Amino acid sequence: MELMVNHTVFIPLAQPAQQAVGSFATSGGASTSSSAAITFPRTVGSPMNTGDAEFTLEMWLRPSATPADNGQTAPTEGANYSGTDGNIFWDADGFSTGRGFICGLDAGIVYLSVINGGSSRTEMGTTDIRDGNWHHVAVYRRASDGLMEIFVDGNREASIAGPTGDISYPGGGAATDDEQMLGKEKLNLAFGFDGDVSEVRMSTNRRYNGATYTVPTVPFTDDADTVGLYHFDQDAVTVEDFSGSADGTLIGSPDPTWSAQDPF
């Protein structure tokens, strides 16, 4: 199955009955404090608080096929942190700490924004994925040299050196800094993602190497490098982490619901 964030995000579940994430906003509109989303831990000591070494964040996305629903074009590739102004599907930054990352769509193209103190970088992929189909999307980031990579459907679409160093949450920040969010920007200042999301996995290694890779054809599995694994196969407000470390929580009003859409 999958969960839908409308702005509509669906995220697939593995069972017949599923829930859908309620409306974020219509036609790519601005998210609000009550917009539906899923939060995950980013607290100090949480396995999901990645950024001190290397990580791969991957998931299946099916953006709305209506271009205007994910039509933001504010992110700009270069030495900046403009990712806060796109159709955000993952927000893991720190408002008061000045370190973290955001992933989203810019006119349907996947981007990754990283910030660490006075250094920042926004990097873009190349493919507009607003075609109504499922797409495997992965981003990779390495602290030692700042390497940032974007992968879509078996192809590496971007690879560049960005800010170096630890971008995990160090503690002592604002209330929103100790969480990361699927479906919209945490502070509700930008635009959420409109479409379906399924199978989310956070890993502390480099899952994909080289210019191409074999696209997964089955749900993600747990292994020694997995720190977050979400199949969205339960009808509940708690989203089970099948790696056993950090459950997610559905939030928003109206309450998020599930969808039976699935990429496999």
Concise synopsis of the structure shown:
This protein is mainly β.
Characterization of this structure:
The structure is a single chain. With 264 residues, the protein is mainly beta. A hairpin with an 8-residue loop joins β16 (238-239) and β17. It is built from no helices and 18 strands.
Query: How many strands?
Result: 18
Poorly predicted regions: 6-29
Q: Cα distance, first to last residue?
A: 9 Å
> Helicity, in percent?
under 10%
**Class inferred from helices and paired strands:** mainly beta
Quaternary state of the chains: single chain
Could you give a short account of the major beta sheet? Answer: 9 strands, mixed
Write the layout of secondary structure elements.
Elements (H helix, E strand, L loop, with lengths): L1 E5 L1 E3 L26 E5 L12 E10 L23 E6 L6 E8 L2 E8 L2 E10 L6 E8 L4 E6 L2 E7 L17 E4 L8 E2 L2 E9 L22 E5 L7 E2 L8 E4 L6 E2 L5
Parallel strand pairs: 2-14, 5-13
Antiparallel strand pairs: 1-2, 1-14, 1-18, 3-12, 3-17, 4-9, 4-14, 5-6, 5-12, 6-7, 7-8, 9-10, 10-11, 14-15, 16-17
